[in-house]
Amino acid sequence: MAFEWLTGTSLPQFWKNYVALFDDEKDGLKRYVVFDMETTGLDFKEDVVLAVGAIAVKGNAIEVGDFLEVNIKQEKFETQSIARSGILKDDNEKVVEAEGMIRFINFIKDSTLVGHNVNLDIEMINQALKRLDLGRIKNPVMDTNVLYSRFKGLPDDTQSTLDELCDALKIDKSERHTAWGNAYTTALVFLKLKRKLRIS
Amino acid sequence: MNNPVAQGIADFLKHYPPFSSLAPADLFYIATQSKVVYLEKNQVLFRGGDTTHPDFYIVKDGAVGLSLTSDAEETLIDKCDEGDILGLRPFFAKNDYLMTARAREESIIYGIPIAAFQTYVKENPSVLEFLLESFASQTRNPYDKERSGKLLAENTVFSDQVADIQYFQPIKYTRNPITANPEDVVMFIAKTMANGSIGSVIIQQDQLPVGIITDRDLRSKIATGILPITAEAREVMTSPVITVPDNISVAEAQMIMLKHNVGHLCVTRDGTDNTPVSGIISEHDVVAAQANTPGVLLKQTRRATNNKELKYVREKLTDLIQNSIDKNIPISHISNIVAEINIALTRRAIELAVEKIGSLPPVRFVWVNIGSQGRKEQLLMTDQDNALVFEDVEPAQYETVKRYFLELAELVTDSLNKVGYEFSPYNIMARNPQWCKSLTDWIKQYNAWINTPAEKDIEISTLFFDFDFIYGYPAIEDTLTETIKQNIERNKKFFAFLANDTLKNPPPLGFFRQFLVEGDGEHKDYFDIKARALEPLIDAARLLALSMGVTEITNTYHRFKKLAELEPQHTDLYDECAEAFNILQHFRTEEGLVNSSNGRYLNLNELSKVDKVKLKNCFQPISDIQDLIKNRFSLTYIN
């Protein structure tokens, strides 16, 4: 079996490596990972992750080469969500959920995670990790929705969609439709807010 | 690995040079190495004086301005928008950024690592050429430039090759350099260095190099008091000395100097310190080998000992102008450089003439360039117009003193003539007794021009209001300028005549917006760019500047810029005039270089459609500024 740790008590090597990263002090430019996920729905208990797109931000720039895209094989097939998320063609390599999570964890390392309405996404990942008998995500998290409210001086519980943010910040929305496109667009939103809010 | 973000960037890049000439796979690779940078409005990407970044940039959205900062004032040089590249300096120069890049609006730009791009530059000459041109001009897209004929384009390639070859040719250096022994006292070595004006002495023992003493050693070890002036060379010298074989190229020499952080290399027979010294290479040799740079030309001018050497500099200067024009360097920058070298040439000619006469001038004097030289607008070889002012002397001495200066002026103008500046057709030169006189006589002369302006006199006198004091005693200059300034203040009559003179040349477009060309004579059907376009602007700038009391600026472009500052209500018009002047100068210079002429007459049939439109666009400001002059000086009352 490929995932022996599922039955045993010992943790897999990639998870040990991941946890160990948080022990060291870091210097140099802080790495942020902006990500977005396509899911089968909004219920983190029932629904699963279909695709993850993630890209790194350092300083005032998106690091184009520091990029991850994972498409996850589904046992359950739900036509509705397929139609919605647009993952129809099978030209991308698909992996099982466990492999997808390994790649994601290896990619994010100890960076700060950034997403739009990120809590749901984090919870989906935590559920996926739980299915692998692993702990929860340890990374610090930032939400562009919250950052935007802070920048505009709106009440903390204001909900703005990514589209609304793009319009307000004059960001091109043409790449949205896929996980990676949303991640990239969110990264642009984050770059602007980061500069405006003077986040290091 | 699949990376749609990088793919998107590659798809963007392929539309713009130099990326358009690269293969899709290469573009994708470059895109994966790139960064997406966001700039807030007015955010600075890099500042002049900053260490260079590892990336250069291409604008995706928005606009980034490039500006030069001098005297705490930022001058916008260029604006880069979608598809324009910037920050190329690290490709070509090791030192810091010269210009400041600042976002003029919210911008997204891609940063591309120079290290990743370098291989494609080496493999692809067209990429290199594009980058070189962009770097030189910082115009947005050198491919847009309307080339004036194929010949010029071929010339460019040719001259580039020459420069490349020069760089890889063996370097010229000083053979049989001055050497000393390790036991020699450093004071005597310093004296030898001072007498020979050299920067270094090689220390040798049994004919083998063991060390070197340079200015740097004297500065850091003797002048600081660490070692006494009576120390022996062995204590002071830097050892071992870096040795090289005698056939190394300019490029290698430069590389070795950079690597070891030294300014001098010792040449030995086999390149090691086990064979005798045969020469020394200094940083100056490296610079001089790369020729044709303004700094080197200035240096060569100062070191010239005869007319022939001065003439050589002037010829090199023409090459420099040609190269600068090809590389789209702004005409006002070229004019500045050329003016500096012209001035240095004249200064040197004066110094050489004084040496030739054998006795120092009896009193203090100033040498004045007038006309186009006085305005620092002389790009091609045109006439010399100059004058000489000497201090007041006792009437008894007047004739002797004047004779000395006439002789001096004759020598100087002769040698300038040999260098390539034609004699003034109207004999407006310091060798003419009329234009070589004492300060009091000059003040009288200016008073006559200003207070009793007759039509004929005005014709000549306008030249004399574009003056540049280039050699001599500053107090004379100040007195003269002050007199002029006081006299012209609110002198309606003077300005009315000057304005009348200015309007003699009507704007160069006919009723149907066709060009007015020469009707007869040798240049029939040619367009006289000097008389019909440049002179109206020059005259207008002079008149308006003088009427505002601006006497210290004589350059037409700078006069308009100053006026734009002084009269905010007309800023746009003055800026347009300044711009039009530069474009017209550019036309004239290119024409002059192609035909080895003074560029005065343009053959309209040889101009491209775009050039014609560009030329016509320069005429509107001429017409507008003439209207302004008509109204301001109420000319309707005079005629």
Automatic annotation (TrEMBL), chain A:
GO cellular component: a single term: cytosol
One Pfam short name: RNase_T
Any one of the GO BP annotations: DNA replication proofreading
Keywords noted in UniProt: Exonuclease, Hydrolase, Nuclease
SUPFAM superfamilies associated with the record: Ribonuclease H-like
GO terms of molecular function: 3'-5' exonuclease activity; DNA binding; DNA-directed DNA polymerase activity
Signal sequence annotation: none
Designated name of the protein: 3'-5' exonuclease
Organism expressing this protein natively: Flavobacterium zepuense
Organism lineage string: Bacteria, Pseudomonadati, Bacteroidota, Flavobacteriia, Flavobacteriales
Automatic annotation (TrEMBL), chain B:
Molecular function GO labels: [protein-PII] uridylyltransferase activity
Residue span, CBS domain: 173-229, 237-297
Gene3D superfamilies on file: CBS-domain, Jelly Rolls
Residue ranges constituting the Cyclic nucleotide-binding domain according to the UniProt record: 55-138
Keyword Phosphoprotein among UniProt keywords: no
Keyword Hydrolase: no
Record key words, sorted: CBS domain
Top-level taxon of origin: Bacteria
Classification via InterPro entries: CBS_dom, CBS_dom_sf, cNMP-bd_dom, cNMP-bd_dom_sf, Diverse_CBS-Domain, DUF294_put_nucleoTrafse_sb-bd, GlnD_Uridyltrans_N, RmlC-like_jellyroll
Name used for this protein in its record: CBS domain-containing protein
